[in-house]
Amino acid sequence: MAGMVEKRLNELGITLSQAPAPVANYVAVVQTGNLLVVSGQLCFDPDGKLAAKGQLGDGVSIEDGQRAARACAINVLAQVKAALGDLDRVSRVVRLGGFINSAAGFTDGPRVMNGASDLMVAIFGDKGKHARSTVGVAALPADAAVEVEGLFEVS
Known about the structure:
Elements: H1 4-11, E1 29-32, E2 35-42, E3 55-56, E4 59-60, H2 62-84, E5 90-101, H3 109-124, E6 131-137, E7 146-154
Parallel strand pairs: 3-4, 5-6
Antiparallel strand pairs: 1-2, 2-7, 5-7
Helix pairs in contact: 2-3
C-alpha cells in the first residue's frame, strides 16, 4: 500500500527514478541521528537527459530554470526514498540549497529555485516549508543549469 507521500506524488504525476550513484568520492546520502543530508542532485529528467543545460541569463529562461530546479528536487526525493524506503518517514524538509548556473549579472536565482521549493510544499504541505540558500555559480557539472541539495528531518 502506497504511503501518503507516494499518493501525493502520483496525484502530481511524478514517478521517482532510480537514485543515481555518486560519480566521485562521496556518498549520495548521509544520515546522522534524525537528520538526512542529500548531496547535490543535477536536473536529470526520467530519461537521463538534463532538463536544462547552460546558464540562466544567457540562453536558459527562468521558466526552464524552474523546471530544472523541480527536476533536481525530484532527484533529491529519489535519494531520500532510496535511503529510507518510505517517504512518509520525512518529518520535515529542513533546508534546500540551490546552485544556479548563472551568467554574469543574473540575479533571479531565487525565482529559479522556487521550482524546487514549490514542489516540496506541494508534496509535504507545511512540513515542506524550509530554509533555503540560492547561489549563482559560473558552472556546474555537465553544464547543468541547476543543482539542488537537501536536509531532512526523518523518523
